[in-house]
């Protein structure tokens, strides 16, 4: 575990760059994120098209690579509409409030080691701080205000419901995401992103802290409103969700924020669990220069793109969850499992730091607790399934309350007898 002296030594590399180099780094990060967004949109359309036996964009530019740029120009030239019932100031500021935090979070992400850039020795990272990971989570939480205010200021019921869903989703899954990172802090002894990467030079935390890694990956999908957790944008229920009333460049900013947030959570997962910019598959064991110079940027971007492919794969494979299923999974599954795992990791670290004891008993106890949790997990699911089957088996009265409603699939609908006897009026004629 890193000591406070080691952390201070690592952080001392930052804050020494001249102003012009800081500006150059900031501009490079901005360009990388914009170009990465254009590429990710094209990549998502191509991958999903292949999964559905289609071709995808292939006209504008080689392999259709300029299609995203053409779509951006089209959005910029579209008519910019503001609903009559909207709060105009908040309506205009909401997309900006969503996209700026998305860029800021990359300021503490390490792209590589210290290199020679334009004659200056500097780390491939804009800045770092002792609580860099908490900074990322705090700034990412600010971005949700743009979505909530955008839905509220539109003056539309659908937009408001989409914004409320997004805020509830962020609160639910950011809790489990934060809990998943506690184990990393316990092992690294630091919340600095550069120090966490340095602590994984031999073994990645994604391997030794696999439950935290899995919980983080699930939480980051819910945090970014991506399928199958894209409930705030459910077109079958909310038209388009929080951005229903947006058009032109303001809609493009929401789109940009979503894809940059995908890159942010992917970069954070790479930094905390996959060794950051360190070479994969232990390439550095037989190539001494794999983790020096600008080569680590290639390893880092490759890992980030692998996560983004995972996002795309899920979108093309899984259907959207119901909202109650989504919230139930976050509060009653991910958070309790995260708490139990934190207790286990803290126990192991405490024992190791105090000299340790026979670990076989500890691992046996953890195995028993894990098996018990899995049994209770499926037992609870079985009870819920039995209750749902019993409810479906009940006879459904479509006219209860005086209003006919459609039945659920598989529910028996009773037939209603209709009298065909004709009444006779006073003159003896049928009425």
From TrEMBL:
Record's keyword terms, sorted: Cell membrane, Membrane, NAD, Oxidoreductase, Quinone, Translocase, Transmembrane, Transmembrane helix, Ubiquinone
Membrane association type: Multi-pass membrane protein
Transmembrane segments annotated in the record for this chain: 20-43, 89-111, 131-152, 173-191, 203-222, 251-274, 294-314, 334-355, 361-379
Reaction equation(s) it catalyzes: a quinone + NADH + 5 H(+)(in) = a quinol + NAD(+) + 4 H(+)(out)
BP term (GO), one: aerobic respiration
Subcellular location: Cell membrane; Membrane
EC number of this enzyme: 7.1.1.-
Enzyme class: translocase
GO terms, molecular function: NADH dehydrogenase activity; oxidoreductase activity, acting on NAD(P)H, quinone or similar compound as acceptor; quinone binding
One Pfam match: NADHdh
Region (Disordered): 407-431
Gene Ontology cellular-component annotations: plasma membrane
InterPro entries cross-referenced by the UniProt entry: NADH_UbQ_OxRdtase_su1/FPO, NADH_UbQ_OxRdtase_su1_CS
PANTHER family: NADH DEHYDROGENASE SUBUNIT 1 (PTHR11432), NADH-UBIQUINONE OXIDOREDUCTASE CHAIN 1 (PTHR11432:SF3)
Protein family: Belongs to the complex I subunit 1 family.
Function: NDH-1 shuttles electrons from NADH, via FMN and iron-sulfur (Fe-S) centers, to quinones in the respiratory chain. The immediate electron acceptor for the enzyme in this species is believed to be ubiquinone. Couples the redox reaction to proton translocation (for every two electrons transferred, four hydrogen ions are translocated across the cytoplasmic membrane), and thus conserves the redox energy in a proton gradient. This subunit may bind ubiquinone.
Quaternary assembly: NDH-1 is composed of 14 different subunits. Subunits NuoA, H, J, K, L, M, N constitute the membrane sector of the complex.
This protein's name: NADH-quinone oxidoreductase subunit H
